[in-house]
Amino acid sequence: GSATGDPQTRGPLEAHASTTGAVKFLPPMSHDSPFNADTPEELAEAAADHLEFVIRNEGPETIAGILTEPIAGTSGAYTAPPGYFERVRELCDEYEILLIVDEVITGFGRCGDWFGIQTEGVQPDVLTFAKGVTSAYAPLAGVLMRPEIAENVRSGGFDIGQTFGGHPVGC
């Protein structure tokens, strides 16, 4: 949808989105689910099936990563139904797509475990964090990643700007 600019491929929850290069998929949240699911298990299956449809529709070779939050922090702390993230991990493995987890709000013990994704029993390829790492006393953020991804970043360079870059207290 958003990557192509074609409004016909946009889902009902992304009509407002115009992020270049990003394609959204419907979340597995039960409070306003467009999926006709009667149980959490049915919801997990329907949402994961939808994600696979989006992957196939866009072409898996065109997707570098799936970026998601294990707990939707800004929309009410909603969690996915049991089994959803396990299936997402399987899809990422099957289609060779990186699973990128945003733990900026939920990381560093804010959910009980060190990271929200730990409750799902899934290991992401990349994990972003920020606020909780310093209890929000100083601006600091970071990225954890599998060693082979880190080696690619190290060897090829990664020239980007950073929100908290260069702050004397942070580093």
UniProtKB/TrEMBL annotation:
Q: Keyword set for this entry?
A: Aminotransferase, Transferase
Cite the Gene3D superfamilies for this sequence. Answer: Type I PLP-dependent aspartate aminotransferase-like (Major domain) (3.40.640.10)
Record-linked SUPFAM superfamilies: PLP-dependent transferases
**Family matches, as PROSITE patterns:** AA_TRANSFER_CLASS_3 (PS00600)
Q: Which InterPro entries match?
A: Aminotrans_3, Aminotrans_3_PPA_site, PyrdxlP-dep_Trfase, PyrdxlP-dep_Trfase_major
Where would one find coiled-coil regions in this protein?
A: none
Provide the GO MF annotations for this entry: transaminase activity
Regarding protein family, the annotation reads: Belongs to the class-III pyridoxal-phosphate-dependent aminotransferase family.
Can you say what this protein is called?
Answer: Aminotransferase class III-fold pyridoxal phosphate-dependent enzyme
Annotated source species: Natrinema soli
Lineage per the UniProt record: Archaea, Methanobacteriati, Methanobacteriota, Stenosarchaea group, Halobacteria
